[in-house]
């Protein structure tokens, strides 16, 4: 995960490298098609980058049988470490979470006695071990401990199995051909650890590589084996990608530059980097990176990889990461569920598209007949309120609408729909002294330590009655400054009225996570009130 808090500009401009970027070339024997830089796509048609325009950073990608899985960072959101699934590398669906609850030994993850903003799950590793048919997730938390979770199915029950009392920072997990499990990790100094036979503890660890000073820093390890070589795939935040190669997991390793300052596929977005490699059933290789695209976050982009002299080369289009490439040659009849659209909360559990801001109080919400949110916190600060349910924003722009039954709100309660980040705004219902109003509030802010510096200012309001209201936020999350969200409401679900000024989104990267839609209900006086969200819908223009 990129995290260079000092001298970022100098890193982006640093110019000492060991090899020049390899030019694009005709695909080699590992490719599923032939592609020449700037050439014509094959008959299978094209796909368009980003393949997922939602915030899924620090990705790890694997294939198990005919299914592809992509795991990502979630920081303080719970459940954590979401997993996407695809059968063609292009169309993806929500499939599960490796970390059902942020069970990391601190009440801060429960918003109890502290807060965990920008802590929790950073770049972590997902892999599958054929010998015992088990999925493993490994992640370092707060720089000092690493957790191992396992499951027999991605969408099944994940269990915390062990805590390793050192940090596998930005871990990459390799299950070798002899079933030995290794972890590559580190920032600048890259190390390899060998895990025990059960994969739950460390047997050995040693440094295998020191990043040359001219590079700046390397991190974001992914660990692979191909044709007898071990590869550690590393990112230079936030504009480069490098790879190490050795005939032993313990080195010595030699280094090659994969890309540097490569033009990306999203207008206004960053350089594709980090992420991981995956091989298709047909032997072709692909690189799933992410692209900085704030205020929306960091979004996955896919490009084909070929190999020359057992070194990986990203296939480019006109010298850059292509907006379009030929679809991977992966015949399949399997389909995936849409990552947008409506949710009426009729299931007894929340779908995998949802994540709470910190761990929820499970006694204060229910699903099945809509989403019922009882107030769980008495506070004047949305950032301190438990049970705010979040959903990623679909880029480049999309609209979220909720149908809110507010008839059981208590005096002092606030409930609504937020644009949630370190600078936030919301539209919702305030009930005070028996009077209900729909309100647009902005000016919710955090400082660089993620402490609240502003709890919000009411910018516009209107009286309402009847107990039911539709709330809407339209969000423009194209990369860049000055992007805006607009808030509106309706009393009949059809005719919407704008409320308050447009809200300008913060596109700084330091919070790491992009904006999300947040559904909330908290008390400012006393617990006891409740709302029911009858429907959530996420639509695109």
Overview of this protein structure:
The chain is mainly β and 541 residues long. Helix content is 1%, strand content 46%. It contains one helix and 39 strands. The strands form eight sheets. Strands 24, 26, 27, 29, 34, 35, 36, 37 and 39 form a nine-stranded antiparallel sheet that branches. Strands 4-25-28-38-30-31-32-33 form an eight-stranded antiparallel sheet, with no helix packed on it. A hairpin with a 5-residue loop joins strand 5 (80-86) and strand 6.
Query: Structural class of the secondary elements?
Result: mainly beta
Number of helices: 1
Radius of gyration: 23 Å
N-end to C-end Cα span: 32 Å
Oligomer: single chain
The largest sheet is: 9 strands, antiparallel
In helices, the fraction of residues equals under 10%
Q: What characteristic shape results from the CA principal axes?
A: globular
Short key terms for the protein model shown above:
disordered N terminus, 1 helix, mainly beta, nine-stranded antiparallel β-sheet, eight-stranded antiparallel β-sheet, 541 residues
């Amino acid at each position: 995960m990129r995290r260079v808090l000092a001298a970022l500009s100098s890193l982006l401009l640093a110019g000492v490298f060991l090899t020049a970027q390899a030019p694009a070339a005709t695909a080699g024997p590992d490719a599923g098609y032939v592609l020449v830089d700037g050439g014509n796509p094959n008959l299978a048609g094209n796909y368009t980058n980003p393949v997922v325009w939602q915030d899924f950073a620090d990705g790890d990608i694997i294939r198990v049988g005919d299914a592809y899985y992509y795991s990502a960072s979630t920081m303080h959101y719970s459940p954590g470490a979401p997993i996407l699934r695809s059968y063609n590398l292009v169309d993806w669906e929500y499939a599960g979470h490796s970390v059902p609850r942020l069970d990391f030994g601190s009440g801060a993850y429960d918003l109890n006695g502290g807060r965990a903003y920008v802590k929790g799950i950073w770049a972590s590793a997902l892999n599958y071990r054929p010998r015992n048919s088990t999925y493993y997730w490994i992640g370092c938390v707060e720089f000092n401990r690493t957790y191992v979770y396992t499951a027999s199915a991605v969408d099944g029950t994940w269990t915390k199995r062990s805590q390793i009392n050192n940090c596998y920072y930005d871990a990459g997990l390799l299950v070798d051909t002899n079933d030995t499990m290794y972890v590559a990790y580190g920032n600048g100094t890259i190390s390899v650890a060998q895990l025990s036979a059960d994969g739950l503890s460390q047997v050995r660890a040693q440094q295998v590589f020191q990043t040359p000073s001219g590079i700046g820093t390397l991190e974001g390890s992914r660990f692979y084996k191909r044709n007898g070589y071990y590869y550690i795939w590393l990112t230079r935040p936030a504009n480069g990608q490098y790879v190490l190669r050795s005939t032993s997991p313990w080195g010595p390793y030699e280094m090659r530059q994969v890309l540097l300052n490569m033009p990306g596929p999203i207008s206004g977005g960053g350089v594709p980097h980090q992420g991981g490699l995956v091989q298709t059933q047909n032997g072709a290789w692909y690189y799933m990176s992410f692209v900085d695209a704030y205020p929306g976050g960091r979004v996955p982009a896919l490009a084909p990889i070929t190999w020359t002299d057992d070194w990986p080369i990203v296939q480019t289009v006109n010298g850059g990461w292509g907006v379009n490439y030929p679809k991977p040659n992966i015949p399949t009849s399997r389909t995936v569920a849409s990552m947008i659209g409506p949710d009426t909360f009729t299931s007894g559990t929340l779908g995998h598209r949802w994540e709470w801001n910190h761990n929820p109080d499970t006694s204060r919400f229910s699903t099945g007949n809509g989403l019922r949110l009882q107030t769980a916190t008495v506070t004047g600060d949305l950032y301190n309120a438990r049970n705010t349910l979040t959903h990623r924003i679909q880029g480049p722009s999309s609209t979220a609408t909720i149908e809110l039954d507010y008839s059981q709100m208590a005096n002092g309660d606030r409930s609504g729909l937020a644009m949630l980040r370190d600078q936030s705004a919301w539209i919702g219902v305030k009930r005070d002294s028996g009077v209900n109003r729909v309100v647009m509030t902005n000016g919710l802010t955090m400082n660089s330590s993620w402490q609240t510096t502003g709890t919000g200012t009411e910018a516009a309001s209107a009286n309402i009655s009847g107990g039911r209201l539709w709330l809407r936020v339209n969000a423009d999350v194209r990369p860049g400054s000055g992007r805006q969200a607009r808030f509106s409401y309706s009393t009949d679900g059809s005719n919407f009225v704008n409320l308050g000024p447009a809200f300008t989104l913060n596109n700084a990267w330091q919070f790491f996570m992009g904006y999300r839609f947040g559904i909330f209900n908290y008390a400012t006086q006393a617990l006891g009130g409740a709302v029911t969200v009858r429907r959530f819908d996420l639509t695109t223009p």
